[in-house]
């Protein structure tokens, strides 16, 4: 299993995150790797990763966006199951076992956030509005496209992420639309979740950009049917070239 964590200026909470994640993974019976993608951080995010063996560190020279960073990590992964989660561990690392179980009978497994701690009425309301509009715009049947815990079989990751074009926060929507258009089976499962202060997502500014990106994705992919050929390379194609496209 490969676990990918995108990180941008996470020096303050990354030591605790890595301690908890590595502690959990070292107790598991399967082989694993932990990949942190440093998205052009200006703090000591990279330095912290370098002091925590056996973390694989991938560094973007400049800030490229969460979508780009997740794609880069997913395409560098070597595990038969590839999972990504957020650096704040809003979904506890123990929840990855649910993703792994779901991947035994699905190509893609996505978390649906449960047991939420109050995150403020503005963020809560805008989150629900974005989820509703996303379903209306894209036709995706999923309740929660933006949960930060998702898993792919290696074959599914290699099918979806080379085609990703969205660099920022709406990449989840594009990944799920691509999975649907490629005829992959997607399972949505409830996972524990808690609000963690310090999110990099602005509910208003980023929310508006995410909606614009979602409209663009819908226009580009909306006419395709499940199983249709999808463009061969977006930003993930460039990422795959960087990390070694012949291997992936």
TrEMBL record:
Transmembrane segments: none annotated. Gene3D superfamilies: Spore Coat Polysaccharide Biosynthesis Protein SpsA, Chain A. Pathway: Protein modification; protein glycosylation. It is a single-pass membrane protein. It is an enzyme of class 2 (transferase). One of its GO terms (biological process) is protein N-linked glycosylation. It catalyses: a di-trans,poly-cis-dolichyl phosphate + UDP-alpha-D-glucose = a di-trans,poly-cis-dolichyl beta-D-glucosyl phosphate + UDP. It comes from the Bacteria. Its EC number is 2.4.1.117. It is found in: Endoplasmic reticulum membrane. InterPro entries: DPG_synthase, Glyco_trans_2-like, Nucleotide-diphossugar_trans. Belongs to the glycosyltransferase 2 family. PANTHER family: DOLICHYL-PHOSPHATE BETA-GLUCOSYLTRANSFERASE (PTHR10859:SF91), GLYCOSYL TRANSFERASE (PTHR10859). This is dolichyl-phosphate beta-glucosyltransferase. The lineage of its organism: Bacteria, Bacillati, Bacillota, Clostridia, Eubacteriales.
